Amino acid sequence: MLKSKRKIFSEEDVQKFLSTINKIKGEKIEQMQNKYFQATRAHFLSKKLEAEAVLDTYFNNSVGIGEHSDLLVEVNQWVEKLASAEDSLGVLDRYEERSKETN
């Protein structure tokens, strides 16, 4: 004859446990997304800083100018890179604000 198994955990305990597991999973996913967001922001920030450094060299250091015969074209390219990085950082800021409003 089989004996019935005694319940070790109540239904409420099981639900609390499952709820906690789901919360942990959600936090891990959110942390992962935050790391992707941080990495994206760091990428565009590094592009911005690189462009600023190159432009500073071109505008303030005559040694950097000697290597480029077509300086104006080169400066314009770096200005475009700087503008693109700044625009991308602005998009990320607006995205972050919208995400905070919806959560």
Largest sheet: none
Gap between N and C termini: 55 Å
- From the alpha-carbon coordinates, what is the Rg to the nearest angstrom? 27 Å
| Helical proportion, percent range | over 70%
The total of helices stands at 3
Calculate the mean pLDDT score and round it. Answer: 81
Beta-strand residue percentage: under 5%
Q: Unreliable segments (pLDDT under 50, ≥5 consecutive)?
A: none
How many runs of DSSP E, i.e. beta strands?
A: 0
- SSE class: mainly alpha
State the order of secondary-structure elements, H for helix, E for strand: HHH
Note the overall shape.
rod-shaped
Topology:
Layout: H1 11-60, H2 62-65, H3 71-102
Helix pairs in contact: 1-3
Explain what the structure shows:
The protein is mainly alpha-helical. It has a domain at 41-103. It contains three helices and no strands. It has helices spanning 11-60, 62-65, 71-102. Helix 1 runs antiparallel to helix 3. The longest helix has 50 residues, at 11-60.
Structure keywords:
103 residues; 3 helices; 83% helix; mainly alpha; 0% strand
Briefly, what is this?
The protein has helices at residues 11-60, 62-65, 71-102. It is mainly α and 103 residues long.
